Amino acid sequence: MILLSKLVFQFIMMTIVHICVSANINNQNSALDHGLYEKVLDTQECIRQLDYITNNENFGLKGQFIDAGIRTPRGILLNNYRDMGNYFQCLDIKEVNQNMLVEGKYCVIEVPFPRNINIAEFEVIGLGFPWNNHHWVKDSNTRTNNKQTYQPLQQYELENANLEKLLVNGKLQSGETRKVKQNYIQFELAICIPKVCSTQQALSILANNTAAVSDIREVFCRLPNDKPWVVVDYIAIAIFSTIGLLTIFSTCYDVRHSIILQNDSKKANKLYKTFSVFTNTRKFLTFRSDANALNCVEGVRALAMLWVILIHTFSLQFSFVPANPIDVHEFTYSFLSLFMTSGNITVDTFFMLTGLLLVYSQTSKMSRPFLKNLHVFYLSRLLRMFPVLATGILLQASFQNHITDGPNWGVVAKSTDDCRQYWWTTLLYVHNLVSYGYLCLGHTWYLAVDMQLYVLSPIILVWVLGGTKKSALGALICSLLAVLASSTIYNFLMEFQTSTYALSRSPEDREFYTQYYYIHTFPRASPFFVGMIFGYLLHLCRGRKIRLSRILVIFYWLLATVTSLTIIVSTYFIIQPDWDNQNVDSLRNSFMRPAWAACVAWLIFACVHGYGGPINWFLSLTIFKFLGRLSYAMYIFHLPIIYIINATALAPIYFSIEFSMHMLIVVTTITTLVSFLVTVFIDIPFSIIFQMLLKGAKFGETALNKGSVTTDIGGIPQRIDNGLRP
């Protein structure tokens, strides 16, 4: 059995390495076949096909190109400068006539339009297709004095202009580029042209004026069947097919042994039933209670995960193609949007939970030599995190590129390319430091920071596990103070801006903030150490009734409530366009996150020791245990699902809170379903195999035996030492 387990493990590892090496060696394995776009171009055939289309008495083919092509953007007064045409209609055009094959090609172009023309003084006509020689024109008869109609747009443009003046410091762009951006609006318009034509050639011929289209820039083009099947796709099919066959075999064996023959399930071959959906699902849905279990943690973890999904659902809807950018702009900087704009603080909840559960679980094994089992400490964590993360990477590098399509699919295609090239940085948990800008599953930067802190934690744990209470508390407090002091100095020296408005308008500042603060390990470490302190306090109070005076409990609850609300509400002032206080920004960057972590840690401490009241009851509900067990998989898969949904949108999405909440329900439902399937079909089986390997290797027995603080995932004991992973 052990030999077979080792062979399965080696096969999986070799296959994954082969996938990643193949994807890395063959640079042609791009998600979209860019060579195809150049290959199909034919200048002479383009002239011939355009002449046939425009001069054909049958309006059918011409009408298809016109109907699928360029139009006036809807919602210009709401600052929408994008029209997406009709993507699938264009790609479906195919006609054979006069020894020629006419096929459609979908392209997006940028058309500059002067800003200095009052929007109330022009009318757009004839933008059905350029061949009818209609142009943007000014018409004095269309003037209006309705100032209220254009006031939001004028205010939006004014704020943009004022911000551009503030950002003129020589770093962002040259003077000529700034002048172009200030004087022109860039319309992004979809056009449908014959496949053999380039956009410049097609527009020049149809407009009969090369100079008129000289300023038009092609953004991208798409063709039918431009997603090539590459090596990684076929290997992914082989891997998931193998897992599927193992699941069928294992489930049939389990059902025959336990149900048909009605034998004792404990006497069944454990390896044969490893992939059994019947057993794994039953165990997953069985919730056991333990005397040392921190039941409220599951509720905290689940709610934090749902908050993350909510934030990404709203924010990514903004970042694609909103049909009413002014409404998005007004909502983003309103008080109502605080649930979204202040939501990035929730990630610090996971960092705190990692530190808390790490210390709380390790201190239950204080009698065992920690340093002698350090290899198990690292290896067991890596193996527990590996199956779901590797599944997410493999799906992103293969199937997700083929699952559907849409005019915004380039975002998904880039994620696929990044995973095919930089898979290894994610599996090594260094992608936040090594491959910024090309992040495979970019949102997993949290896992990188979390793992890096986990790797460094033994420096403190040796004092906690091997010393006295005073030395343990001293080491924990000193480490927190050291991190706070050094990160404060770092933040004041780097001067990170936190104004959402400024960051949204300055790509360089936004990348600087993200790379060196938001996803960097050092400035995000303090909540982890806060969690370690509270984890040790929970250990000291383990099995004891802690008596606190009512006044002291009320004081701590008020302090935690006021502090957390202050952190959330203060975000409203920070995100405003006129915010400019670097000292407050630096102080907030240094102390906001550990303060939030302390508030959530107090909530857990109070709930565990009977001072949580209805809050403890709510956080301990069974539904949160279910979601808590899925939280790790939900974190991995929710963002790719949001990308896929938004990338398939065929028209700009009109933002409203109601529609976004509908999207949230859809995303959460699909994410939960996908996470459940991955957990039952992949995560639980491979966790069992890895446990067999550790025990069979004779070095994991001590660390994995009974007595440690555990929580069950599908009936499989797992040490609770990670903020997302139970």
UniProtKB/TrEMBL annotation:
Is Signal found in the keyword set? yes
Q: Does the keyword Membrane apply?
A: yes
This protein's source sits in the domain of life called Eukaryota
According to the record, the signal peptide region is: 1-22
Domain Nose resistant-to-fluoxetine protein N-terminal, which positions? Answer: 64-205
| Family annotation (InterPro entries) | Acyl_transf_3_dom, Nose-resist-to-fluoxetine_N, O2_lipid_transport_reg
> Start and end of every Acyltransferase domain?
296-679
Q: Which residues span the membrane?
A: 229-249, 302-321, 333-360, 381-399, 445-465, 472-493, 517-539, 551-575, 595-620, 632-657, 663-690
Sorted keywords for this record are: Membrane, Signal, Transmembrane, Transmembrane helix
Q: Which PANTHER family match?
A: O-ACYLTRANSFERASE, O-ACYLTRANSFERASE LIKE PROTEIN
Tell me what this protein is called. Answer: Nose resistant-to-fluoxetine protein N-terminal domain-containing protein
Q: Which organism is it from?
A: Chilo suppressalis (Asiatic rice borer moth)
